[in-house]
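Hi,

I'm pasting everything inline rather than attaching a file, because the server keeps stripping attachments. The sequence lines come first, and each chain or strand is labelled.
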Amino acid sequence: MVLLLQFLLNGIVRGSAYTLVALGVTLLFSIMHIVNFAHGELYMFGAYVCWVFVTYVTGNYWLGLIAAIIVVFFMGLLIERLTFRPLYDKAHINMFIVSLGLVIVLQELATLIWSGFAKKLDTGYKSVRSFGNIFITDERLIVIGVALLLIVASLLYFRFAKSGKAMRAAAQNRVGASMVGIDINKTAALAFGVGSALAAAGGCLLGPLFMLTPTMGAVVVMKSFVIIIIGGMGSIGGAIIGGYALGIVESLFEGYAWSEWAPAVGFVLLILVLSFRPQGLFGRG
Amino acid sequence: MMAKNQRLATYITCAVVAIVLPLVLSPLKAGNFYLHILIIISLFTMMASGLNLLLGFTGQASIGHGAFYGIGAYTSALLVMDANFPFWLAFLAGGCAAGAAGALIGYPALRLKGISFAIVTFAVGELVRLIFVNWKNLTRGQDGVTDIPGATFLGIDFTAKLPMTYLALLFALLSLVLVDRIVNARVGKAFISIREDEDLAAATGVNVMGYKVLSFTISTFLAGLAGSLYAHYMRFINPADFTVMQSMQLIAMVVIGGLGTVMGPVVGAVVLLFLPELLRPIKDYYYLIFGLILILVMIFAPAGVMGGVKSLTTRYSKERA
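And the predicted assembly:
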C-alpha cells in the first residue's frame, strides 16, 4: 500500500511535466493546426537556459525558471516567424518536415553550445519530507505545485483573456475570426510563444530529476503527441487527464513490472486506444 | 506518361551506368571506400523509393521506416544463423516479414489521417527498437548480432566488395523499376488520387483503405529487403542501426530529391550520403547543415531537386513546341 502511494506520487510528478508540454502541443496542433515536432527541443532549451542561469548567473533556481520561460517564449516567436509562417497556406506535410529539420538544428545547436555530455541542473531543494511512510523531496513538491499553478493559469487564460479567446475563435473558424477583426498571424505567433513557454517550464521542472542532454526533448514531445491523441484531439481537458494518467501508468509499470519496457507503455496504449476508439478517449467522433 | 521508347532508353541508361560505375571506381586508390558508399546509396535508394511511394505518391508520412529496415535485417540474419536458411530465402523472408508487419500495423493505423498516422509509425518504430534491445534471447540485445554470414547465391559469393556492389545496385534498380511501373499503372493513379483528396477518391469509388495498406506494405517490404542486404553486407547489426534518426534521414532524402518523382530518392540518397564526405572538414556542423537544408528546401523549393528538373524540362519542351 505504501509502495503503491509512493509510485502514484512519482507518477504525478512525472505527469505534471508531461501535461505542461502536452498543453503546449494541444494549443499548437489541435487549435492552431501547427505541427511542431520541435516542441520537445523547446523543452530541452528551457532546461538548458535555466541551467545557465543557475550555474553562471544567479544561482537561484526560481530566477532561472523565469528566465527560461521568457527566453524560450521569444525563441518560439522567432521560430514561428522564420519557419512556420511561410507555410500556413501549404500542405500540412511541409510544416511537419520543416519541424523535423528544426529538431535536428536545435539539437545540434545545443550540442555545439553545451556539448553532448549530460549536465546536472541543481535546484538546491534536496531535503526530503515524509508524510507517514511516503517520502518526497522538496524538488518534486515544487514540480507538482508549479505545474498545477501553470495549468490553472493557462486554463484561465484561454477562458478569460482577450488573446486566449482569440485563439479559441481562430481554432473554430479562421475566416470568421478574421472577419471580426482578429489578426490570425499575430494570434498564431502568440500561441506559439505561449506553447513554447509552457514547454520550457516543463523542461525546468523535470530537468533536475534527470540529467540534461540535447536529446532529452525528443521522447517527451512524442509522449505529448501520444497524450493528446489518447486524450482526444482538441480537448484541453483530455490533454490534462492524459498527461497525468500517462505519468502515473508509466511509474506504476516501472515500479511493479519490467522497468526496461516502461518507455513502451505510452506507445502500446496509443495503439490500443486508436484501434478501439480512434477519436481518443475524450474526443468527439 | 512517358513514351514507351523513352522509358526503355531510361532503363537501359540506368543499367549501363550501374554496370560501368563500379568498374570505373574500383581500380581507384580509395576504390573500396567508393564501392562502400555506392552500396549504402543503393540500400538507401531501395528504402527511399519505398518511402516515396508512401509519402510522395500516396501522401502518408511514416517516421518509423527505420524499424522495418531493422525487421528485415534481424529476420534475415537470425534465419541464416539460427535456422540455417540459405541467403536468398532469408532475404525474401526479411522482406516479407517487414511487409507483413507493415500490413498488420497499417490496417489499424491508416484509419488515421496525416500527423496521427505519423505518430503511430513513430510509436511502432520505438516499440520495435525496444524489442531489439530487450528480447535478448532472440536478438542478443544491445550487443547486436555478430558474425553474420555474407551473401551467397547460386554458388556466387557476394562477400567481396565488387560483387556485393552489383547485388545492391541490381536491387536498387529493380526497386526503381517497380515504383515506376506502379505509379504509371492503375494502382498508382489510385495512390495519387488518395494523396490529392482522400474523400474525393473514396467518392469516385477508390478503395482508400485497401490502397493505403497496399502502398504501406510495398514500402515496408522494400525496406525489409534493404535491411537484409545491409545485415549480410555489414555482417554485424545492433539496435543502434535502426533509430528514428535513420527514419528522418530517409524522409530528408525523399524530400530533397523531390516528393513524388521516381528518380528523386536516388538524387536524395546520393546528395545526403555524399554530403558528409564533402563536409568532412567541418564535420561537427554536418547535422546542423543537414537540418538547415531540409528546412530551406521545404520553404523555398518544396518540389525538391527532381521537381525542379521536371518543371525546367516541361518549360523547355513547351517553348520548343
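The beta strands of chain B are 152-153, 156-157.

If the labels don't parse on your end, tell me and I'll reformat.
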